[in-house]
Specification:
The protein is an all-alpha fold. The protein has 7 helices and no strands. It has one domain. Helix 3 packs antiparallel against helix 4 and helix 6 packs across helix 7.
């Protein structure tokens, strides 16, 4: 350890946690040798699984308790099911989940309209507070959104050029 410390002593803060006497978890960790025993607590009773529960493919079972208020439905649910086929350490898991969240927002707006409720997107996005406390930032967001929308609209409605010859 001392040889290693000499090699890296020029790095500020290197080895600060190398001394077990200076490790705040050291006394607790070795107090009862619990690490070798595994779980020392009794698992809570399993909540009944009466809806679809998505869980990591790295877990053999669902957690003891889980949320039931919003089971996966629609296109966002399909994206979530797809995401849970991949490990939590891959982009194939997280990118579809991010996309599913955005799709779920649109599905929620469509569902509100279908039920006869027109959502107040201005208020729900907090633009009232932005207008009151950060007008410059709100105007900037709106202008950037309008510019992006205009460019996308122009690209989608572009007519192919005819070759003259």
């Amino acid at each position: 350890m001392e040889d290693l410390a000499k090699n890296f002593a020029h790095i500020k803060g290197w080895g600060i946690d190398a001394d077990p006497k200076n490790d705040p978890t050291y006394p607790m960790r070795h107090r009862e040798k619990e690490e070798e025993k595994g779980y020392t607590w009794e698992r809570p009773a399993q909540q009944p699984v009466n809806i679809e529960v998505l869980h990591s493919n790295e877990r053999p079972n669902v957690s003891a308790v889980f949320g039931t208020s919003a089971p996966p439905t629609g296109l966002s649910g399909q994206l979530r099911r797809y995401a849970f086929k991949y490990s939590e350490s891959s982009f194939g898991h997280w990118i579809p989940l991010l996309l599913a969240d955005r799709v779920n927002v649109v599905e929620g707006i469509i569902d509100d309209i279908r039920q006869g409720h027109v959502p107040n997107i201005f208020a729900e996005k907090g633009w009232g507070g932005d207008w009151k406390y950060d007008r410059k930032g709100l105007v900037q967001k709106v202008l950037i959104g309008a510019a992006i929308t205009t460019v996308v609209f122009a690209l989608l409605n572009r007519k192919p050029e005819l070759k003259r010859g």
